[in-house]
Amino acid sequence: MEIIMSKHSVIGAVPPSRPAPARALGRRLALALGFSTALSAMAFGLLPVAGAARADPVYVKEAQIPGFAALVAAVKPAVVSVQVKSDKSEEEEEAGAFFGAPGFDQLPDDHPLKRFFRDFQEQRNFRFHDKGQKPRERTVSLGSGFFYSADGYVVTNNHVVDSGNVFSVTLDDGTQLDAKLVGKDSRTDLAVLKVNDKGRKFTYVGFADDSKMQIGDWVLAVGNPFGLGGTVTAGIISARGRDIGAGVYDDFIQIDAAVNRGNSGGPTFNLNGQVVGINTAIFSPSGGSVGIAFAIPASTAEQVVRQLIAKGAVERGWLGVQIQPVTREVADSVGLNKAKGALIADPLDGPAAKAGIKAGNIIVSINGAEIADARDLARRIAAIRPGEVAVLGVWRNGKQENIKVKIAAQPNDKAAAGDKSSKGKSATLASYGLAVAAAEDGRGVVIVDMDSDSEAAEKGARPGDIIRSINNRDIKTPAELQAGLNEAAKKGRSAVLLRLESEGVNHFITLSVQKK
Questions:
Q1: Where would a tag sit more exposed on the chain, N or C end, judged by fewer CB atoms within 10 A?
Q2: How many domains are there within the chain?
Q3: How far apart are CA 391 and CA 357, in angstroms?
Q4: Hey, which of 66-70, 86-90, 463-467 has the most confident mean pLDDT?
Q5: Is there a catalytic annotation at residue 189?
């Protein structure tokens, strides 16, 4: 006898072939076998048994990892989607770009191009404004933001609002409200909008003390990625103090919560529902999140936002210097025990120069607090209110001096001028790969030729640059440059500090001293 079974159930019993007289016995055996098979199926749990107890599904009664639901429910109503539009057509913007092109205003009034664009503008004004019609608005960007106050101030990014002039925000409940631009700051990429809904009080959030946040702490990002408003992602703080090349005030918090296009201007929260940072940039070879996002720290954002609300603009302290980092070589060349502070490349016509600070000086502290690097100096000076007096620790002549400087308001633009002429008696410094000549203005020596493989070339020096000083001592002739190199060698210095002027901008390089 043979029993055939499928993978999941009994199909039946198939007796072997047998002689005709044994058919009755076969039937009895088949009945008995069928009964036994049914019992076997019940035993295997394949057929239900009346009154048999069924096992409960798996359920683990242990403490669960806490989620973010309560936090999300509290902060989500304060986060908005920002829509930015322009009431200019693409044709108008192209025409405007042409009108602003260099040389256009120099054309005669009767020039055909001027007449064409003047006629274009007049026709458009008639078509829309004389007929009482408004230009069609077009969306130019989408971003995120959050309510900073109950009366409707919204914080977002400058790069979200910068390309438009018509603004609106969409609340978490879907309500869309018009907004107006209060102020923006390109240096920190922050902006403030204001909405007004007939006295409505909005749910808002506040800034955290981000100095208490540590690498590894949980954070939550809420925003409007790809236009999908109300999106929540979680992660941790991955790093702090990131410089991504956005500007001198770079001090970003790096997070690994998923941040994508459209998250710009949205908040990153700590577990108390406070804003730790404002999402502003991502690193992404693909355009989507790869787990590296950068947020403006709350400490920076709060200062800027308060000024934008109060004044519509940001007023920063200004020292009036061009600065560059202090490398190990620079520190060694001036006798500083470690690479710290900011090297003055050029004191402009500003507070520092008036206080006696000169090129080659190194600012190592402000009001007793040590300066880590050039970016740290820029941030600290910017945070000082114009008109206040700051005490700067300045390293020069092998020692630190404390100098009082009255901080001024930061102007829009500052530039230095320089002379690049190169007439005069020349000299060749073969061991340094340089050929120099006295500058025409009598201040320094001009690099007239150089070896492209020389150390000076590797450090950024180029033919036409003017060497103004060596080890903070002004020079006028190639002989004085050579004397400075010889003096450094006699003193056992490993390098000298050269101040170079390139295209009107001063900067420093170090040059290894060639031993004789």
A1: C
A2: 4
A3: 12
A4: 66-70
A5: yes
* CA–CA distance, 457 with 461 (Å, rounded to integer): 5
Other Cβ atoms within 10 Å of 227 Cβ, number = 13
Q: Supply the pLDDT for residue 403.
A: 94
According to the 3-state scheme, what is the secondary structure of 48-110?
CCCCCCCCCCCCCCCCCCCCCHHHHHHHHHHEEEEEEEECCCHHHHHHHHHHCCCCHHHCCCC
Nearest to 219 by CA among 244, 238, 206: 238
Residues near 46 by Cβ (< 8 Å), separated by ≥ 6?
8, 9, 10
C-alpha 115, offset from chain centre: 44
Instruction: Out of 86, 141, 264, 469, pick the active-site residue.
Output: 264
Q: Which position has the higher pLDDT, 56 or 423?
A: 56
Only one residue has tokens 């050929």, namely 435
Distance CA 245, CA 260 (A): 20
Of 185, 189, 256, 376, which one is the catalytic site residue?
Answer: 189
Helix (H, G, I), strand (E, B) or coil at 135: coil
Same domain for 375 and 231: no
How sure is the predictor about 265, in pLDDT bands with cuts at 50, 70 and 90? very high
Catalytic residue among 81, 86, 141, 159: 159
Amino acid at 112: P
Do residues 405 and 389 touch, judged by C-beta distance below 8 A?
Answer: yes
The tokens of 135 are what? 């230009």
In terms of Cα–Cα distance, which of 374, 359, 466, 487 is closest to 420?
466
- Establish if 101 belongs to a structural domain: no
Question: 211-250: per-residue pLDDT in tens?
Answer: 899 999 999 999 999 999 999 999 999 999 888 877 767 8
Give the chain's count of helices (H) and strands (E).
11, 29
Alpha-carbon dihedral angle through residues 383, 389, 394, 399, given to the nearest 10 degrees: -140
pLDDT per position as a tens digit, 440-449: 777 888 887 7
pLDDT of residue 250: 81
Structural domain that includes position 290: 69-87+137-314
pLDDT above 90 for 393: yes
Both 386 and 434 in one domain: the answer is no
Q: Is 159 labeled as catalytic in the residue annotation?
A: yes
Per-residue model confidence as pLDDT tens digits over 121-136 = 555 555 444 445 556 6
**Can you point out the beta strands (E) in 256-328?**
267-269, 275-282, 293-297, 317-318, 321-325
